[in-house]
Write a structure and sequence with these properties.
- By secondary structure, the protein is mostly helical.
- It folds into two domains: 64 residues, no CATH class; 71 residues, no CATH class.
- Helix 6 runs antiparallel to helix 7.
- The chain is rod-shaped.
Length: 180
């Protein structure tokens, strides 16, 4: 709205000859320049209209303060605790067990193979550990002994990684051909 525009006369006056609610609200909001000259003069002399404008201004201030309080102190929402989805967890565990059944059919064979592998490797590990322990740090010095132990661990881990990576069928064919 431009500053030179005024409220229409039918919006300014009530039927009783006093300012309407619209005009009283405009005056309460400090927008007197929107009122026609006759309305401003009436407001300056009419005690009833001044009271209505004052009440509208007080209401406007109270609403403004309440809005500022809401903005200044936002509502803190309590975290929502959702119930544990027991049925979904049970269904997922059931499906996981069902999917693991084919792999479990080979479990006894794989356990025997693991035990056999550990029993064939264990004497070598024990022998190497005893040799290192017997040599001690006095014979070679603490730095060289530490490097030796770390080297054994790295070689052991590398051997395990290679053994896991190479398929058993290719190892068996290699041994049958005399390649290993």
């Amino acid at each position: 709205m431009k500053t030179d525009e005024k409220l229409a006369e039918e919006l300014v006056w009530a039927q009783d000859g006093h300012l309407s609610e619209v005009a009283a609200t405009v005056a309460a909001d400090g927008q007197e320049q929107l009122l026609p000259a006759g309305a401003a003069a009436h407001l300056a002399t009419c005690e009833s209209c001044m009271r209505r404008v004052g009440e509208a201004a007080m209401l406007s201030m109270q609403i403004g303060e309440q809005l500022m309080q809401r903005v200044a102190a936002p509502a803190v929402l309590a975290p929502v605790r959702l119930p544990l989805p027991k049925a979904a967890i049970a269904a997922a565990l059931f499906l996981a067990a069902l999917g693991a059944l084919p792999a479990l059919s080979n479990a006894p064979v794989r356990l025997v193979q693991l035990w056999s592998t550990l029993m064939s490797v264990a004497p070598h590990i024990v022998r190497g550990g005893l040799a290192l322990a017997n040599a001690g740090t006095d014979a070679v010095g603490p730095a060289l002994w530490t490097v030796s132990v770390l080297s054994v661990l790295v070689l052991f881990i590398a051997g395990l990684a290679i053994a896991r990576a190479v398929p058993r069928s290719s190892m068996i064919r290699s041994v049958q051909r005399g390649g290993g």
